[in-house]
Amino acid sequence: MNVLIVGVGGQGTLLASRVLGQYAILRGQDCKLSEVHGMSQRGGSVVTHVRIGDKIHSPVIWEGGADVVLAFEALEALRVKHYLKSDGALLVNDEEILPMPCITGAAVYPENIKDTLKAAVKRTHFIKAQEMALAAGSEKATNVVMLGALCKILSFDYALMREAVVKSVPPKFMELNVKAFDIGFNAVNL
Predict the structure, then answer these.
(1) pTM here?
(2) Of 51 and 100, which is predicted with more confidence?
(3) Whole-angstrom Cα distance, residue 125 to residue 185?
(4) What is the DSSP string of 132-181?
(5) Which of 1, 40, 72, 181 could form a disulfide with 148 if both were Cys (CB 3.0 to 4.6 A apart)?
(6) Exposed/middle/buried for residue 131 (C-beta within 10 Å: 0-12, 13-18, 19+)
(7) Mind listing the pLDDT tens digit for each residue in 66-104?
(8) Residue 88, exposed/middle/buried by CB under 10 A (0-12, 13-18, 19+)?
(9) Secondary structure (3-state) at 84
């Protein structure tokens, strides 16, 4: 299983990758993670490669090799859709975060990203994860809402994935994150 997680700095892509790694460990599988940060502390792109299997030798997913792209922002999904396998799934947080060139006026945020992605990737799912995270108690749980939805889309073991969330977050945020996970899981209709 190859999962490419993309977002911008501060959206929790790294925690999401650690939860998936914990899930692999709970299943008795090997897992390799690789992170690429592009000015992430200033809202730049963050890309995390997660590979899960019986024996993983390389942490990097090749173009056309991702089973799933988990995108915390729409433009980031557009940037990496070429990493998906032809039958891969794309799960996108329906949110737009303007990159610095758009904020300064040097570039324009692309229009119709949603339509473009749906036309390019048959298995595309958009969810309003930030709104759902707010309903759980904090927009900082957007990443865990996305993990709940991912669990449903990939038919992961619900109890093990939920346990991976519990083991990966600080105890004082456990209740919030479990609630966010459940909201994300229940948001997806297959």
Answers:
(1) 0.91
(2) 51
(3) 13
(4) HHHHHT-GGGHHHHHHHHHHHHTT--HHHHHHHHHHHS-GGGHHHHHHHH
(5) 181
(6) middle
(7) 999 999 999 999 999 999 999 999 999 998 887 777 788
(8) buried
(9) strand
**How many angstroms separate the CA atoms of 66 and 87, rounded?**
10
Tokens of 168: 């990966």
Q: Which domain holds residue 45?
A: 2-187
Q: What is the mean pLDDT of residues 169-178?
A: 96
Q: Which residues pair with 5 in a beta bridge?
A: 48, 70
Burial label for 62, CB within 10 Å (0-12, 13-18, 19+), is exposed
Structure tokens given for 57 = 């030798």
What CATH number should be reported for the domain holding residue 27?
Answer: 3.40.920.10
Phi, psi of 131 (to 5 degrees): -60, -40
Residue 94's H or E segment, with its range, is none
